[in-house]
Amino acid sequence: MFAAGVLLAFAQPAQAGPTSELDEAAAQALFDEAMSLMEAGRFSAACPKLKDSLALDPAIGTRFYFATCLERTGRLASAWTNYVAAADEASTLNRRDQEREARWRAEALRPRLPWLTVVVPEAVRGAAGLQIRRDGHAMREAQWGAAIPVDPGVVSIEASAPGRMPWRMRWVAREGERATIAVPPLAAKPRSASAPPPARPGVSPARWAGYATGAAGVAALGVGAAFGVHAAVMKGRASCDAQGRCATSSDAARLDQAISSARISTATSVIGGALVAGGVVLALTAPSTDAGRPVGVSSQLTVGLSGIAVRWVVR
């Protein structure tokens, strides 16, 4: 039976604080149903019920079983956090047996935890409105540079700031691994080419389109240069040989960042050069007059990991 043996110390969920009678009854019903599911080995179905029971009635036993359920479903960091919390609550209530059991579980789990450190250099911190997110959740500044346990699986790190290109990286966390991810400087977003003043009589729409295309190309070249610098910096910091074999997982992460930035740099530089060349050709070969009709041209350059798009409107 699942609840036999060492789990007998938590056979009844000891309350850590007062709750309403209705909440208590609902919490008990959810707890009982979750225990039946765990007895049947259906841990994925049991965990949400234990979580809801814990929200209604923060009982030590419920938290302990919730941690056990999380552990059995592979969410090791979440399980460790709840074991530690259960031990602390038991210590406050002078429940020594429960405290010992929960701390033993937490310590036994600790060597299996993946640990991630997200480093935000001072140069990056200066960006106004900077936000760092892990798996979609904002990381407080106090967490930057600190080793934090994470659940095994894909971990997503994102950085964003107003007026700057967003940055994103994924790390596959495995049991017992440690990794450090450094957030690179966020490149400035290329500004949409300003709409030129109304064309004077004698300037054709095609020529203004050439000017706008050239401006978009210059912006793309700037983005390519920024990513190229970042690629060089990250490659220099990675201790890897010519075959891509790296000394540590942190070095491998840096090399991956360098490769991604280099690819973006190459693509933006090539396309930027093509846009500049095309703009020059279009401006030089366009008719010089358009029956005196005023012309307005607007262009927009969009750069992303999936590609580059240029759009202009002649009116």
Automatic annotation (TrEMBL):
The entry's keywords: Membrane, Transmembrane, Transmembrane helix
Ranges annotated as spanning the membrane: 208-229, 264-285, 297-314
Protein name (record): Tetratricopeptide repeat protein
Organism listed in the record: Sorangium cellulosum
